[in-house]
Design brief:
Helix content: 25-40%
Structural class: alpha+beta
Distance between the termini: 66 Å
Shape: globular
């Protein structure tokens, strides 16, 4: 539950918080009204990680798989068919792979980020069961992190329709904040233990005397250790052989999930060309110690996917953290090399 690092961009100078010159040009500043200037400062001072909610997109898919495993409606090795789209309640919902993934297992559906696979799992679960898991994972409620301005997020809850459940399965029509996602995802891979996230570890006097130590607060169990083990296996495969390959760190077992979500305008319409790209990764994959979530809001690049925009940054962070903390890497496998020896028969030293 310890938040070791947190950052938002654009940043501002704490010694001069009203200076907007690093964000706006002088021409833009000269045309701003007092109200616009105040709104701009409030936006700059806001901590995106706790005060902004967003649709998680495909980083939500591991939760759908976990729910299916927990409820026994799917099992490891079950197969699903993806033809590139599904019709749900009269609406066509596409997969990112328009030609379809064909027949895939649960694991393959997750590491290839297949929407129809998730929608079929959601259909087996039903809206009532899906709605039951939302508060269990902490979605729709504040985490209680020791920071101000936390948003609770948005969930549909018991009013979830068939099409709501289908969209929810791949991370649409649910809004979360980054701390919520990090805390919930941690429980997926750490054995099912949901810890309350916190920034402060201890409070000391100026003399160094410890006044208070913040102990880990285990709030509840979200999934069984068996389901957590299965998710770790799947999410590691996502890095080793799936869409998350750009997050791999040489010498370490990494697990993670990509996410790419469309944004909407104030009228609820899809905002053309605007996306949120994210990646959530953890290491070591078999015994997780560190988790990193990076989100890029409205990237301006040619390839707009979580795998290309966010995953490389998570890799760099995890690589540095694992090195800094001297976390043991994978044990190198013994390698053999075949060589041709000279014929020494009948010869002496």
């Amino acid at each position: 539950g310890e938040i070791l690092a947190m950052a938002s961009y654009p940043t501002f100078n704490l010694n001069n918080p009203r200076d907007l010159s690093g964000v706006y040009t002088q021409e833009e500043l000269s045309t701003m009204t007092d109200i616009e200037m105040t709104d701009a400062m409030y936006a700059l001072w806001s901590n995106y990680c706790v005060s902004t909610i967003y649709e998680p997109g495909s980083t939500f898919k591991p939760f759908t798989v976990a729910e299916g495993l927990e409820e026994g409606v799917i099992h490891d090795g079950d197969t699903f068919y993806c033809g590139g789209f599904m019709e749900v309640s009269g609406s066509i919902i596409n997969c990112h792979e328009h030609s379809g993934h064909g027949t895939v297992t649960v694991k393959e559906g997750l590491i290839q980020s297949c929407n129809p696979t998730m929608m079929q799992i959601a259909a087996k679960l039903g809206g009532v069961k899906i709605a039951k898991y939302e508060p269990l994972f902490g979605f729709g409620n504040r985490t209680g992190i020791d920071l101000p301005g936390e948003e609770a997020g948005l969930t549909i809850g018991e009013k979830m329709t068939v099409i709501d459940a289908a969209c929810n399965s791949f991370g649409q029509n649910i809004n979360v904040n980054m701390v919520q996602m990090a805390a919930a995802f941690s429980s997926l891979v750490n054995g099912g233990n949901y810890y309350q996230p916190h920034i402060v570890k201890r409070i000391e006097k100026s003399t160094g005397e410890v006044v208070k130590t913040i102990e880990p607060n285990l709030v509840r169990q979200t999934v069984t250790s068996e389901t957590s083990q299965m998710l770790r296996t799947y999410l590691r495969a996502g890095v080793d052989e799936g869409l998350a390959r750009k997050s791999g760190v040489a010498g370490y077992a990494i697990g993670g999930k990509t996410g790419t979500a469309q944004k909407y305008d104030e009228y609820g319409r899809v905002s053309s060309g605007n996306y949120i790209c994210s990646f959530i990764g953890f290491a070591p994959a078999d015994e997780p110690r560190y988790l990193c979530l990076i989100l890029v809001d409205e990237p301006r690049v040619s390839s707009i996917f979580g795998s290309t925009v966010a995953a490389p940054f998570v890799r760099r962070v995890l690589e540095n953290v694992l090195t800094l903390k001297e976390v043991p890497g994978l044990t190198p496998e013994t390698s053999y090399q075949t060589v041709q020896l000279p014929n020494l028969v009948g010869m002496s030293a």
